[in-house]
Amino acid sequence: RKKPPPASRRVQEALSQPSMRETPQAQEQELRLSVSDKEVLQKKDFAQMSAAEIAQVTRAIAQMKLPQAELHTRRYQPDARGLRLDMRRTLRGSLRTGGDIIDIHRLGRIDKPAPIVALLDISGSMSEYTRLFLHFLHAITDARKRVSVFLFGTRLTNVTRALRARDPDEALASCSSTVEDWAGGTRIATSLHTFNKLWGRRVLGQGAIVLLISDGLEREADTRLAFEMDRLHRSCRRLIWLNPLLRYGGFEAKAQGIKMMLPHVDEFRPVHNLSSIEGLVSALSTALLPHHRSLIRPAA
């Protein structure tokens, strides 16, 4: 018998859950509470959320719009408001008027969205954060086609094609079925080496922005990790590290893996709640400004 698609299973599972068999009055009360507690939900840690709260956050993420951070290219196209004179077209037009220049043609620089490459840690400590961030990547993939997504634990897996499914639940189910080491161990250096060797030249061209989602807790931290991070940093226009450990106000880079990775990133940001993802959206809209390293801590 053919299995129902993920979207159908989602409906069946929802109808079979006891929580969905509540009375209309209870559902209305829960809706009022969710609206009144919206600010609390914005700052609540993903790992501490209930199933209902995760569903609310998922809906909020699906509605996010990523501003198109434009990347200036070296190519030009006809543009009436352009700042560069199109001498060839201008002179060609003057031939029709006996050499008199009547219309001045101009060229404008071609701008296009910068590619985004996401490397997501799927180890046990990162599982909840990665799942919700995949919802964000699915949302922005619809508007921005130049998005490449890779998952890594003990090995690297390209899930770019799987994440392009129209239904978010179907996309995430496809991603989960593609990888074999979800919620397992972590080999950051090995995974970065595989990415740099096999995929770097394919997806990091044209000023790509790299989002690295990981807590940096590498069991086999050695000089290879620093080397691969440096290689990745040099290959992209901007490297943004998203780490849920930044949710702790007293966070310090004491772990060996974090110490080796931190010098090679442009921004170090949290990724533990809805507010942190909204902050990332704002950062991505200005990510093509001149490089500067910064540490973004969560608000108290």
What does this structure look like?
The chain has 300 residues and is of the alpha/beta class. The protein folds into 2 domains: 72-111, no CATH class; 113-295, von Willebrand factor, type A domain (Rossmann fold), CATH 3.40.50. The protein has 12 helices and 10 strands. The strands form 2 sheets. It has a 7-stranded mixed β-sheet. Helix 10 links the parallel strand 7 (209-213) and strand 8 (238-242). Helix 4 (51-62) packs parallel to helix 6 (127-143) and helix 8 (188-198) packs parallel to helix 10 (223-235). The longest helix is centred in the middle third of the chain and has 17 residues, at 127-143. It is elongated, with a radius of gyration of 23 Å.
Q: Provide the low-confidence segments as ranges.
A: 6-21
Describe the global form: elongated
Rg, nearest Å: 23 Å
CATH topology heading of the largest domain: Rossmann fold
Q: Largest sheet, if any?
A: 7 strands, mixed
Q: What is the C-level CATH assignment of the largest domain?
A: Alpha Beta
Structural class based on helices, strands and sheet pairing: alpha/beta
Helix-strand topology string: HHHHEEHEEHEEHHHEHEHEHE
Helix count from the secondary structure assignment: 12
Estimate nothing, just give the exact number of structural domains. 2
Distance between the termini: 53 Å
> CATH homologous superfamily name of the largest domain?
von Willebrand factor, type A domain
- The largest sheet has its strands arranged as 6-5-4-7-8-9-10
| Average of the residue pLDDT scores | 79
Percent helix among the residues? 40-55%
